[in-house]
Every structure is written in structure tokens, then in C-alpha cells.
Amino acid sequence: MKNKLCKLLYILISILMIVCFAFACSSNSGNLDDDNGNSGTPEHTHSYVLKYDSNNHWEECECGDKKNFSTHSGGTATYSEKPKCSICGVEYGELLQRQPTEGLVFSLMRDDEYCVVDYVGNSTEVYIPETYNDKPVTIIGDLAFYECTGLTSVEIGDNVTTIGVGAFYECTSLASVEIGDNVTTISDYAFCGCSSLTSIEIPEVVTSAGSYVFDGCDNLTYSVKDNLKYLGNGSNSYLYLAGTTNENIVSANIDSNCKLIGSDAFSGCRSLTNIEISDKITSIGDDAFISCTNLTYNVKDNLKYLGNSNNRYLYLADTTSTKITTANIDSSCKFIGYDAFRECDSLISVMLGDSVTSIGERAFIACHSLTSITIPDSVTIIGEGAFYECKSLTSIVIPDSVLSLGGDAFGECILLESIVISNSILSIGEDAFFECASLESVTIPNSVISIQEFAFLSCISLESITIPQSVFKIGEGAFADCTSLESITVDEKNTNYKSVNGNLYSKDGTELIQYAIGKTETEFIIPDSVTIIGIGAFYGSTSLDSIIIPETITSICDAAFSNCTSLTSIEIPNDITSIADETFYKCTSLKNIIIPDSVTSIGFYAFAHCDSLTIYFEASSEPSVLASWWNYSNRPVYLAGEWSIVGGVPVPNSN
User: Fold this and answer.
1) Does the pLDDT of residue 604 top 70, yes or no?
2) pLDDT value, residue 17
């Protein structure tokens, strides 16, 4: 027992000594000096690492100490790369903001987007930007670069989704085109006649390629496979089927990566008997299978289709007879082809399924008995002449899905009374509603950029029309011979046009584009601001018997006064040098006209069918340039010295 107590006491004393010693060492650890009086604690050595954020860089130790703090500097920004700091090498700042090429003309349209509508610059290289005035540039408008023969290269920004009809038509020097990554639609004739173009990359996202997009691009290089010629891009050489290498092919094995079939792709392949069109195909151009007289079709309900093993009814090509009265189009059909129902004169009704995306050129031309048709929301394209001469059609609604309305689309639909145009339509094509004699009203949406030539020519029941802000271009004679038209109204925000007393003028007032010929006034005085009288400006006026032309006028365009059947009096200003084609054609009440000696040329049919007219020249000889049949009706002509003014009117001198 005693020994155990002694051991325990020994252990306790040992523990106490260890604790005391440790405490003493701890208390004196900061006071241990070397022989020179220096502390024994090791001194901390800083180790700095270069660090940075988006704006600055500095050196920093792991202990938190910082030095050499400064902002990024140096380096050069480019259009694709930010500048790199010359100290730390990190990218900072912004990309170089590329400016649009000088001379590009932009028009603000729906949804605060811009469209390129014209090019008036001199540069041979054009950059179309992604944005303009901080808003996206999404469209290259119809004919925007029409016949820009000096243009050599174009780079299209990535916000552009649509290249309009004939956008680069006949740009014969255009050798390089870089299409933006988000273009989905390339419209009819977009690059037609670009004969210097040797290569082009079509983005994979393109879902619609119109008719004759590359027609006349004779130097393009194609990817060839199984006798078929393709255009594409770096990852897919077979996106767009352009044609064949041999018209004598018997079958066509279209590459599985192909999505677009161009116009005339198989034109004239009379030996072609079989073809499979994949479900991947999203666009087929007009005339793709024209003159393929030996093709085998899949026939259903008197309709002839092309397709594939999974969908035999993808493309509606024709009918088995022009005598059909109804057309029940298969629900899986996507394309109504060129001339599909041409001259089906007994066709009364058509059912279009929700799968149809395009109605091809002349698809229902001369279907004289067709009274109505419902166009589904799936349709994006209505081709040229699609419903031309559908003389029993009374109304039509074009859904918002439709982006393109081709020329002559509803021409000579003489019973068409009303039409609702899609809020997505960019352009109303040439002659689109030509001679729609019953059309009383039409609303042009704020998406429309251009109204092409003669779009509403001879719509004799149309009483008024409103031009929205978005319209940049109105083609020649767009509203000519609209004999009931009493008022043309233009949105005040429109930058190119204005309305004065219901008549259409250029914004600056220098051109009288269209007089509203449905007015009942008998006299009209052209304002002194006007220097140009536009094509067909008074065409078809039956009320005016007098038009006063100011001396400011320097140009009178074709058919300006044609068919003004009540016109009895008009004076040609002294600065006029040319009387254009058909200027006074069928002015049957015009009795006298004096041609000033400034006139050096008279155009074709200028005074044809002016059955009451006598022509007096101030000059002693006729103009040096007289077109054929300028005086078709062989009306009397008198030169200087052969006539005099008597009582304010010219009369021949008595012999």
C-alpha cells in the first residue's frame, strides 16, 4: 500500500514539472535573442502572384499584402477580339465597334427592327451591321443592291434573318459574300446574275431558298455527288441541290444532308423516272421538276405526288385531270408545286392541310371556278401568279406566317372584294392585285417595305389606301388606273412619301407620284414644288378636263396622262426636252397641243388614239428623235410658220 502511494505521488510530481517547464518556455519564447540581440522568430518572406479582375491587375501575397495596383492597358481591339493587357495578358474592354458602310439606307419597321432598303454609297466592299441605332438589322430588303455593278464583296451581320427578293440582282462584280449565321430565308432572285461569284457558303439554319436564287451565277463552284450539284457550308457540302451534271439521269440519289432543292434542279431530265424527296427537305424551288415527263408519281384522290417511303405525299406536282371539282390534299403534303392545278377550270374548293408551307408559282392559275380557299398558318410563301385569274375568288386572308407575296399572286381576280394581308409581309409583288376590279379595301400592314410596280393597277373599285410608316419604295404605277381612288393617306412618320390633299408625293414634294383619279374635280393645278410627274400619275382620270403644269416641271414620265379621256387643255412647259412613251395615249378629248422648241424627242405612242388632236410645233422642223407610231392616229401636224394663235388658241394659217 505504501509503495503504491509513493508511485502515485511520483507521477503527479513529474506531470507538474513538465507543465511548469512548458509554461516557462512559452513565456520566454519571444525573448530568445542571438548574440546580436536579434529575435529568434523567423522573418516572413513575401511571395507575390499577379492577379486581375475585369478592369485592374496587381501583385498579391498569400498573406494578403498587395502592391503595384494599376488598370489594364495596351493591346488592340478588333472586331472579333477584345484588347489584351500588355502587363497581365488578360482580355479587357470591348470589341471594336464596326461601323456600317457609308451609303447604306435603313428603314425602321415592325418591332423596332431595321431593314437595309438601298445602297447609295461608293465603296466596293459593304458591311451590313448587326445593329443600327441600337436596334437589330434583320432584313435586307427587296432590290436593296439592285444592279450595284461595282460591288465586289458583302459581309452580312449575324442579326439578319432574311435576304429579300432580288437583293443583289445583277451585281455582276460581286465575288465574295459572307452570309450571317442566322439567315433563314433567301428569297427569289436574291443573287441572280452575280456572274463573278465563284463560291458561297449557305448557313445550315436556312430553311427557305426561293426561286432562281443563283440563276446566272455561271462561275459558281459546286460539290458534285452522284451526278448532282450542291452548294453548302464547311460542315455540310450538300445543303442546297442546285442541279444535275447530266440531264440524262434515270434516277436521283439526293444526299441525306440536303434540305433545299433549287429552281430548275431537275429541269429537262426527261429520262428521270424515280426520285425520293426526304422529309428533311424544307424548300423546293419553282420548276424544280419541269419537263421531267417520265417521272413516276404517287396518285391519291386524282392528285399526283412525289415523296419517300415514309411520306409518299410530300410534294404535290400535278392533277390527273383538269376537270376535277374538288381537291382533298393529303394532310402530310408540305409543298404545292409549280402549275399544280393550272387551268383546273371546274375546281370549286380546295382543302389545304396544316403541313403546307409553300404555294408555288402559278399553283392555281386560271382556276376560274374557285370561290374560296383557306390558307393555313403553316404557309410562308405564296409564289408568283399563285392565284392569277381565279375569277370567282371573292375574299382571301393571308396569315401572319406568310413572308413573301409574289408578283401577279392575285392578278385578275376580278371578284375579289377584300383581302387581309399578313402582318409579316415585307413586299407586295409586281402586279400582285392587277385588275382586281371588285377590290374595295385593303390594309397594308406596317411590315411592308416595298409596294412593287403596278401592284394595284386598274383596281377600279378601290376608294382609298393608307401607306404605313414602313414603306420605303412604291414602284411605278402602283395605283395607276384606280378610277375610284379618292384618297391616298401616308403616315406622317414615313420618310419617303407624303400625302397632300389625298394625292401621293415624294417626301420633299418634288415628284407627283399619283393623283387620286377618283376625285370629281375638273381642274388640277400641279404645285410649283413639283419637278417630276411620275409614271402614270394621272392615268385613267375621267374627270379632269384641265391640268395646269408649272414651269418648274423638267420631266414628264411614261403614260403620265394616258387615258385622261376628258382632258381638253394642257400646256407643256418650255424646259421639257422629251415627251415620253404613251404620255397622252387615248386622250380622246384633247383638241390642241403646242410642242415647245425645247423638245428633241417624242416617244412611242405618245399621241396615239388622240382622235380629236391637232399638233403644233414651235420649231420649224419636227424633233430629231421620233419613235415609231408617235402619231399613231396620223393626226394633223403644223410646224412654225404654219400656224398662229387666234383668240388664245392655235389655229392653222389659211392658205
Assistant:
1) yes
2) 58
